[in-house]
Amino acid sequence: MNRILVTGGAGFIGSNFVHHVVRHTDAHVTVLDKLTYAATRESLAGLPEDRVELVVGDIADASVVDPLVDRLDPATDAVVHYAAESHNDNSLSDPAPFVQTNIVGTFTLLEAARRTGVRFHHVSTDEVYGDLDLDDPKRFTEDTAYNPSSPYSASKAGSDHLVRAWVRSFGVRATISNCSNNYGPWQHIEKFIPRQITEVIDGRRPRVYGDGLNVRDWIHTEDHSSAVWTILEKGRIGQTYLIGADGERSNLDVVRAILRHFGRSEDDLEFVTDRAGHDRRYAIESGKLRTELGWEPTYQDFEAGLADTIAWYQAHEDWWRPAKAATEAAYAAKGQ
Ligand code: NAD
Ligand code: TDX
């Protein structure tokens, strides 16, 4: 790969991928990002200017997207598509930007890939498969039927279906990855783990939705980035790969691990109003990615990865503090 256009490269996971590409390859990166509330401009600071360029713009605007994709060489270059509205709770309050960015934005990029023949990788989520019961022995695989629950996951499912149709009907050279829940540095404090870490730093009690028994399958964002790069290099066109690191934990277990880390009582938490339509459990079977493409996660110890993440939020209060009061006020208004 010579040149990569990374959409959403100023967000939590996209910015980690930009660092990964700069560290491990010689490729030049153009980031296309609208810089919404979720963008993390600081995360791109200090990257070499001759390797990384930031273009501020909307993926749903063809007049922005087309010239950037036209610069790419179909023989050597690629689009890696991370940009999205990403928070389930926000999609319940206002679904409109989710349809616009996640569906219309993906459509706009696919049309540019169709016109130019450029390789396209679409970053998606395990939430497109709906949820599993707590005692279900099955995990999600590439063959699991789509069954999204929230406006967010429905909009991501819609975007996946567009990619599949553009591959089959127009021969677009695309791959798709569906990853489980990410954690790590630069994640917005509206999300579960950074919200609870920063609540405890502030001397407040973590806020657990419902009964707290919902299970998420956690993966460190570094491992997500290495998996996407592996698929970009070795993945078969038209294929979907599930990305996961065998990190199933109940929300209560995660909150208790955070409380333990800070030396607080494991029961020093608060149960709050549940999320509407709250998915019970996600679990990924990532055998295809591991066997076919030889990928393995490096963060095998969740507690160690969590400790690193806590240390990072303790050291970067200047970054998250400005968003904290407004984020908590919005949750408080919903009883969460
Ligand atoms: P994020 O919300 O932290 O970042 C999203 C980025 O996209 C932001 O920088 C934002 O400014 C940008 N963006 C939003 N709308 C845009 C638009 N119209 N045009 C251009 N840029 C726009 O999200 P994230 O958690 O980093 O997720 C990135 C991708 O990974 C998403 O596609 C998400 O569905 C997927 N994903 C996330 C997780 C997770 O656990 N967070 C898991 C699996 C898949
Ligand atoms: O304060 C909270 N208390 C709580 O119990 C918050 C913010 C969340 N939760 C619960 C809801 C979920 O069961 O924690 C779990 C994780 O919540 P989120 O961080 O909002 O993640 P989730 O809804 O699982 O979706 C995430 O993973 C899949 C990302 O936000 C998506 O972008 C990704 O596709």
Give me some keywords for this one.
seven-stranded parallel beta sheet; binds nicotinamide-adenine-dinucleotide; Rossmann fold; globular; alpha/beta; binds thymidine-5'-diphospho-beta-D-xylose; two-stranded parallel ribbon; 336 residues
CATH superfamily of the domain at 3-182 and 219-243: NAD(P)-binding Rossmann-like Domain
Cα-to-Cα separation, first versus last residue: 45 Å
Structural class: alpha/beta
Rg calculated over all Cα atoms: 19 Å
Rounded mean pLDDT score: 98
CATH class of the domain at 3-182 and 219-243 reads Alpha Beta
Q: Give the percentage of residues in beta strands.
A: 15-25%
Ligand catalogue: nicotinamide-adenine-dinucleotide, thymidine-5'-diphospho-beta-D-xylose
DSSP summary: helix tally: 11
Uncertain parts: none
Helix content: 40-55%
Broad shape: globular
Series of secondary-structure elements, N-terminal to C-terminal: EHEEHEHHEHEEHEEEHEEHEHHH
In what order do the strands lie side by side in the largest sheet?
Answer: 3-2-1-4-5-6-11
For the record, the CATH architecture of the domain at 3-182 and 219-243 stands as: 3-Layer(aba) Sandwich
Largest sheet: 7 strands, parallel
CATH names the topology of the domain at 3-182 and 219-243 as Rossmann fold
How many runs of DSSP E, i.e. beta strands?
13
